[in-house]
Amino acid sequence: MAIKAFENMGGRSVFDPSKIVFIMDHAVPAPYEKIANLQAMMRSFAEEQGIRFIDGGEGVCHQIVVEQDFVKAGDLVLGTDSHTCTYGALGAFATGVGSTDMAAAMFTGKSWFKVPETIRVTLKGKLSNKCSAKDVILKTIGVIGADGANYRSMEFYGEWLEESSLAERLTLANMVVEMGAKCGYMCRSSLGVAADGDACYVMDVEIDLDVLTPQVARPHAVDDVCSAAELKSVVVHQGFLGSCTNGRLEDLRIAARILEGKKIAKGTRLIVTPASKAIFLAAMNEGILQTLVAAGAVVFPPGCGVCVGTHGGVPADGENVISTSNRNFKGRMGNNKASIYLASPATVALSVLEGRIADPAKLEGAL
Amino acid sequence: MKIRGHSVKYGDNISTDLVIAGKYTKTLNIADLAEHAMEDLDPHFAERIKDGGFVVAGSYFGCGSSREQAPVALKAAGTLCIVAKTFSRIFYRNAINIGLPLIECDTNLIEDGDELEYEIGSERLINRTRNIEIPVAPLPSIMVEILKEGGVVPYIQKNGGF
Questions:
Q1: What is the DSSP letter of B108?
Q2: Is the ipTM value over 0.90, yes or no?
């Protein structure tokens, strides 16, 4: 759509091909001819224009951008995917736009913005070793609400953030759009950008990590969040481990530790999608994928299809899915009669093992 | 530019996944998009909107995915204008960019089927059925200009840029 809009605007060549990258990830490898032909059109446009093109199977764009250092602190990044806000973990102003905005940006090198007000989130205390970044961000969404940061920017602070891994910060930044936020900075001291000393905030929110338990967002709203322990009676038909939120090596490792030497429950399925080829290879080298497949998982090539309902893993009517992805809207995974619960990799792995939503708090040792 | 039509009313938090499911978005044929607009929410939407009308909703219309196919599908199905208490940021931009007018106002004052009238850029939405004028949040002038041209594509064709 962006290419078509670009041409309709009178665009002949993009303003600067070195500032543009095309990454194919939403339905790869092409599931049917219509998508195959759209992908072919993107390939030939990129070739004509001298735009770097990363083909299907290499990974989810938000993981590729991070792995290949396409973005640095202080950059302004537009992406035709709402989870472009992920690069707030790298200190970039990064936000999702539609095709026409992207076409205009590729043509003119410009876009227009309204400077947003900012919400400050302070993550206080220490996180339990049964919780992960996903639980932190689900809790935050539950507190702020699905539209609580609409039109706004977010800044996250706290001691835990200082010690967190890049994977954890990417998970947090990835889901700020689920509160409507335009962008979200993970403000630890080494971020490379910082708020002005006299910055003012429209809202201050504190999340107490000391008392946080594993969290789950219930169907069909991302902000309908409760503790995993409250949902023990919910039968799980399918688990999904992957996406730009939780498809990284650290996430797969946690699931493999929980499923090692075991089989997922009868009547339950598990789909695993590593977020990139680099993660796929590393997970093979570590034996993670062997463990997961032996436990009953089906592995999909890196991409977005399962999460967004465009390719593979569509649940049946009345089924419950527990997923590490970022959205549980009705119809999200391709069937409006299915229900999606969002949770951390540990909660998903333990739930498919037991066939019901399970609380990783009962596991021995750290995740 | 005056828009007239009846209201087709829905609730809060209508996501872009509900407006057009991801599985239908991979096409450049807007008739395909129109056919599936809102189908997970209201299987009769196509019939209710085809002669032109206002989609009216509560708060946070268009949340979720940045897919531009969502406003495109609504427009292609016959939607002349969307009225809601609030919109999700990305949906709001996308609708303006494709030349689909949006209004933020108190939609409790509109019932399903009401006859509405709106002049783009105006600060009032007229509800003919109830004979009331509803104050609307004013649009920045750049958006009014884009809408008057029919979207960003014709706007840039005419002006060569922003």
A1: G
A2: yes
